[in-house]
Give the backbone structure.
Amino acid sequence: MSKTVSRIGGDFSIFAPMSSNPLIEELRWRNLLHDSTPGVEEQLNKEMTSGYVGFDPTADSLHIGNLVPVMLLVHLQRAGHKPIALVGGATGMVGDPSGKTQERQLLSIENIRHNVDCQKEQLKRFLNFDPAMPNGAELVNNYDWFKDMDFLSFIRDVGKHITVNYMMAKDSVKNRLESGMSFTEFSYQLIQGYDFVHLFREKQVRLQMGGSDQWGNITTGTELIRRMTGGEAYAITAPLVKKADGTKFGKSEGGNVWLDRNKTSPYKFYQFWLNVTDEDALNWFRIFSLKSREEIEAIENEHQAAPHNRAVQQAIAEELTIRIHSEEDLQKAKEASQVLFGKNTSEQLKNLEEELLLELFEGVPQAEVPRSVIENGCDIAELLADHSGFFSSRGEVRKMIKGGGVSFNKNKIQSEDYSVGTADLLRDRYMLAQKGKKDYFFIRII
C-alpha cells in the first residue's frame, strides 16, 4: 500500500515496494552520490524519512561551496522526505578538522549566534519550512542540546561507547596526526556523532548527508546510534566538487563567492557562473540545477552542438542568480554585462544605477579630475592625456580618434575637436573612456 506525501511542485509516491529508490537514482544521475551505507534505499522506500545536513557557522553567510549539501536537502524534500538543516552552534565552537591542515581560530558565542541567524535566513530560500507540510523542513541548532550538558556527563554517557582506536582510524584524524591535533579537534567527530544520536531520539532522524569528506564523522554517528540505542541509521555522501584544473570550487579571484549580496553582489555572482569553463559548466549543471532531466539534457546537447554560445553557462547563471537573489537582480546583471560586451550600449550605461556602475568598473584604472576642468568644456585630448593620464599624449589621443579607436561613455568619438562637458557625466560625477575594444578608463569628477 503506497502512501503519498507532500512534495514541492507536486505529489510523489515513495512508499511502494521497488527494487531501487527514486531519490538515490536522482542523486546518482545528478552526480550527487558518492557513497551510502547499506540499507538506505530500503529505508527510503519504507517510509517518509527525516534526514539532516550540518552547516558550519564560521561565517555570517553561506557560500557556493555550501550548495552541494544544500542540494542534497532540496532533493530529499522534493522526493517527499523531511529535511533538517542543523546549524552547528556548538560544533562551531570546536572546529571540524576534516580537510584542514591546521586548527582554526575558535569563535565566540556571540559571533556564532549572529552567523547562525544569518545562515537560517539563507537556507529558507532553498527549502520549504511550512510546518503544515508533513515533510516541511526544520532548522535546529546543536547548541540547544549541548549548552546544558556537562563534560563529565558527556564522557560517561557518550564517550565510553567509542574507542580511541575507532576514532584514530578516521581519515580526518590520521591526516592531521603529523601536523598535530588538539584534543578539542580530536573530540569533534564524537560531538558530531552525538548530534545524530540526539536527532535520532528526539526527531526520529534516520539519515545524515554531507560531502564525502564527512564520511568518517557521519559513520561515527551511525555507530553511536547502534551502540547507544540499538537502532539503525544511514548515511549518504556527495562527491567533493572541484574545478577541472583541480583547484577548489567556490572561489573566484576575489575569494569565496558568497550568497550574501553584501559580500558578493548579484552581478559578480552571475558573472562567476557565466565565466566558468565548458568542462566545469557541464560537470556542475546537473548538480546545481533544478531543471528536469529532459530540460538539462536538451541544454547540454545544445551546448555540445555550439559551444561558443555557452548555453550551459547561460542557463546555470540565470537559474542560480534568480534562486539566490531575484529575477530583478538577474535583469540588472544582464544589463550590466551588455554594457561591457554589447554594442550600442551608451543609453544602457547612462541608466545604470550608481552602485552597479561603480561595481562594474571597480577593477579598471581610474583617475580623479576636478569639476572645474569640464565645467566650460574641455578638449577630449587634453582631458584624456593631461588631466587623466589615460593616454601618454594628446597626439596619441588624436591618432586613435582618427582610427576609430576612442569611445567616450560607449559612444565612438568621431572628431578630434570633441569638447567634454557636464552633459557627458554619468550620474553627474563619472565618465568612461575606452581605448580599442577592451581597454577601459574610469574618471571620477570631484
Summary: The first strand starts at residue 4 and ends at 7. Confidence is low (pLDDT under 50) at residues 1-19, 99-104. The two ends are 75 Å apart (CA to CA). The first helix runs from residue 22 to 29.
